[in-house]
Amino acid sequence: MKPFVVQRGSARRRQSEKPRPRSGVRVWREFELIDLIRRTAAGRGRGDCLGIGDDASAHLPEAGFLELVTADALVEGVHWDFAWCDAYTLGRKTAAVNLSDIAAMGGMPRRAHLVLALPPIAPLVQVTDFVRGLVAELKIHGARLVGGDTNVSPGPMLVSLTLQGVVPKSEMLCRRGARPGDRLMVTGDLGSAGAGLWALQHSRRPQRLRTYPVRRWRRPIPRLAEGRFLARSGRVHALMDLSDGLAGDLRRLCAASGVGARVQAGQLPLAPSTRRSAAARKRLPWLLALQGGEDYELLFAASPADVPVLANGLRRLGTPCTCVGEVLPAARGLSLVLPSGEIVPLPPGWEHNQTEGA
Ligand SMILES: [Mg+2]
Description:
There is one protein chain. The chain has helices at 30-40, 87-103, 124-140, 192-201, 212-218, 224-233, 246-257, 272-280, 285-291, 307-316; strands at residues 3-7, 26-29, 48-50, 58-59, 65-75, 108-118, 121-123, 144-152, 158-168, 183-187, 236-241, 259-264, 298-302, 321-329, 334-337, 343-345. The protein is of the alpha+beta class. Helix 2 packs parallel to helix 6, helix 4 (192-201) crosses helix 5 (212-218) and helix 4 packs across helix 8. The protein is globular and about 60 Å long. The protein binds magnesium ion (MG). Residues 101, 104, 241, 243 line the site of magnesium ion.
């Protein structure tokens, strides 16, 4: 791979500080990088008036819809390592984690703005592949890249995506709204992405790992169709996506709704490979489901009478869902029923800066 130099065209940078192009090193200035992104993200969508290349993008508002805006940043060495995933996959994942937040509101994604801070020297193919992956994932779900900013990072690479979407005014779902007596439901399985990350971190050849948990970590699937179905149904009281583990995210849903909850450890949906990963690490499998981050599944609360209809609808979309517990009055707090029947306080979720075993 040919390295290249990304250099912001600022006069403030002293000559002596400028990365010096060596033989075979191409100097890229900001406008050239923006042009590369513009060519990759070419095309306009519904409501787009101005895209990449002006001081701001412009679009028409959609009558009858609420506008949703979400942002997520990923930092090299914190959220990913290029030993764990290639740049194209990272681009897709960057889009997917933002798309998941739109899904968590029952919305439809529309357009994105990308902020890219690159180290002074980075392989060109990495940047091109990253943008290709990001644009491809957005396109799959009907969204486009319409603007952003590029800059030099004195440290690791940083990517931040701001994604805008819409939801019909009467259909938006949020974290508040869960009621005592509701069932707590999750889509898919839990803990596999966390197991995949652990495998990548502990493998001598992480790029070669192709297991289900690793796939789940590298390529999260935003549950947009599922989010829309739940929002349209009118039967869901609260909805969110799971990025920091069920234990941590359920706390947020309960705090927003002013309720407590009880989770059944024995009912948590676990893939066979997640159970094997837990055994290899000598950890309890249901703890991986509670604390493994980056699942990007949906958690929702609904009346017991509505659960069969919702579960059948999700199954028709090809997505299983599982009842993992119930909503209680706030005074009952947050608890976990162990497979033995013992009731304990709900453990904490995944936290940034957490170390293995914490
Ligand atoms: Mg979220």
